[in-house]
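Researcher: For the record, we're logging two predictions in this thread. I'll number them. Prediction 1 follows.
Model: Prediction 1, sequence and structure:
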Amino acid sequence: MPLPVAGLVAMLYAVRPVVVPRGMSLALAQRSYQQLWEPRAYRRPTTFAMGRDGTVAAALAGGGSANAEGRILLARPTGRTRVLPPLPDALIAHHTRAYAPSADGRHRYIGGYIQNVCVTDGGAPVVTFAFPFGGAYAGFSEASFIWTGTVWADAVPAGIPAGRQNVWVAAASRSSIAFVADVLDESPNELSSADETSNDAHDQVIVLSMGSASVVGNGIATDIVGDRVAGYDDGFEVSAQGVRHAGSVTAVMWSSGRARRLGGGIAWALGRDDFAVGDDRHDVSVVGHPVCWRDGRAVLLSGHSGSAFATGDRDMVVGRIETGAFVATCGAPPRSFSMLDPLIDDHRWHIEGAYRISSGGAILALAVRRAEKTMKLVVLVPLRRGVAGRSR
């Protein structure tokens, strides 16, 4: 049964659109870069993120502008914004081989784009660049980079575990970063060199902590807090002979090198202790319902299709269902659930989806001003406490 909604104690929020330089736009439309494992609907967007300190990083869309292509907009909670330099061709070339410069020499990797964006607790963006390739086989060459404050650098040290070539960033915290070794986009030659061709390979979760990288298990990572990682096992296995779907999708928490399977679904974010949020879909090709897991037990947040994407202090949970963004609590009863729209001080806004929460309670969301119909990346800033609740 859905959670009760009476007497939800929540913040009232102001909408603060992320300011984009004139002539540029954000890459808000999600590309479908991995047809097999990626969730079809109610997935957290990969081209923007917010760190726990409130820093927002977002990929800029090219839009025909050489100044925007492959660049990151960085917005600090102080209101200061900056467009970071593009990823250097020479740095990308460390990972993506045998691609000649374009005729004009301006950009070596035309067609490539920033596929994943994460932000560490300290506000440093970590991104993955994806470059499509074709020929005897097709896929994406992926590599991850971190902004040091002055330059872009390799995010993963040389000699990553398992000899994988494709590594994309999935989550970041204060001292750790979670990556995924993407076997579904590796070439048969790379798979053959990394594994016995008679054995099946899986996407692997790699944690980089204190300069050392280690594989913590098979699956897709979505969040990391300290040494705890959330995510899911997509059920796909790969070898040089092809791809096999070995089962339904399962939510997973990894801690101290051990995997804890929570049940069917995707765990999108971690809270305190053994608390996680996500959805209960049984396959990546279908939708589920928003849930939280506490002490290994799933609690349904809403009977509507959707997912919970982030959790903050006092077990506050945000996410998206069919009608828009929601906020809920999943601590000790009584638990509550409300749409976010009634909690916005300017009712001209509709909050489409809520995806991240900072340690200060700010929410990163997609929203539209009803009269304009243009989706914007916004930060919902808490103003004061109020009482609201709406049955869903």
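Researcher: Logged. Prediction 2.
Model: Prediction 2, sequence and structure:
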Amino acid sequence: MVTCLHLLFNMYGLFVVGQDVEQKVGTKKFLWVYFIGGLAAALCSLYVNVFKIGVGASGAIFAVFGFALITDIAHARREKRSIAPLLINFFLFLIINLVLAESLNADNAAHFGGLAFGLIIGGIYLLNSRAILIAPIVVINLLPPPPVSSELLQLLSKSS
């Protein structure tokens, strides 16, 4: 069940981090990270939760967070600043989300799928900012096929 509190957290996270990422990389690349990150998160959710329907934008927002973390760490290192505050904030963000995810009935598979995608796409962006446009194709093709659950096998055997 999607709650108002979950929606508010998503809106706040997107406002705070999304604005920062959009300023750094531009609107087109931000939208690319957001939408393709949402797709990657949905695929990860489907991979883990074969018969569970997921809704929302949390996975896409986590992709933006992952992208922001990688690019912010690289920026701090270039300026010879400590990355400790970034990592502390990131781990607090993860802990809070893990605790709240259970109470809000959130999809952690989508959250962590989006986060992983954002981290990967952020690293690729740092290597070559134009590669961000083709990187999702590479990343999605690296995913292993989803496991076949016993529920799916039963469903398939009934239809034959």
